[in-house]
Write a structure and sequence with these properties.
10 strands; binds flavin-adenine dinucleotide; globular; disordered C terminus
Length: about 300
Amino acid sequence: MRLPEYFKYGEKEPVISFEIFPPKTEKGMENLGTVLAELSGLGPDFITVTYGAMGSEKHRTLEIASLIKNRFGVETACHLTCVGASKNELDHLLSDIYESGIENIVAIRGDIPSGAREFIPPPDSYKYGYELVRHIRQFEKDRLNRSGYFGIAVGGYPEKHTEAPDMETDIINLKHKVDKGADIVITQLFFDNGYYFDFVKEARSHGIKIPIMPGLMPILSVKQIERIISMCGATIPSDLRKRLNACKDDDEKARAIGIAQCIDQSKELLARGAPGIHFYVLNKSDHMKEIIGALPARRFKYSGGKFAANNL
Ligand code: FAD
């Protein structure tokens, strides 16, 4: 099922999705099978599979997405990035995705190589996410003879993308990406819901009407989250930072704080009308059992087949 369909039902539980990444080793792939069985048992609407930086592990993305769909019976989306890929290569990847029966793509520019001040794309490739969305929509017309075959999600940044000069510019760029054919936005992780609510308000005021799914990453250790936020630009509110600083070397305590934080954020987001939550699960399942188990089952209604959850 295409991603936008999940947001169109008359009355439904919030849309819950998980994001995993392709392991680098065979052992990691074996472990992932067990984790996927457990994650599938939690009843997510869909699971997305990331695309390695600069296309690393790219074949595993499709392999794992197919496994999720065919063995575990859960809808899935392949992430696809355009950094460093030629247009021809993108067409091959899109053909592979189509032929595998995958109907959804998280279309992302990709991180530019670390250390690079400005990204100069190789000839015959793209610089921004909106170009990838446009390419996918053109591919559908030219190669599949079907407009709108893929459900397309794009990334949004409640604390602004690190390269954007200001939030206004970033939102205008997001609108451009949506206008090229995105169906939903999935946000970067954040730890203060205020950023999400302000972001949605700004996006709506710029005419972005599609569902904006908040992305949450449960903290499982201080070291791990420090590494991740140093890359993506998310900030940790000072009270949470204080509590984490008190258990820097105690992963058990940090995990308990992280899970409680994620449950509180999730409950508030859903209570205030977010259309669902996309969890960055870090290829683990135990913490997600606790988090999903703590969430209210039903919360909002959609009417007339339109996205209408408290205007969020
Ligand atoms: P873009 O939408 O291209 O935006 C990047 C920057 O360019 C922004 O600052 C934007 O304001 C600016 N910009 C956009 N258009 C223009 C324009 N026309 N002129 C000037 N500036 C412009 N990375 C991976 O490597 N693999 C993954 O699978 C992956 N999945 C992700 C999933 C989600 C939901 C998110 C939020 C991020 C993901 N990332 C992934 C990280 C992502 O690659 C980085 O955040 C990347 O730097 C931006 O990707 P984007 O598609 O949002 O970029």
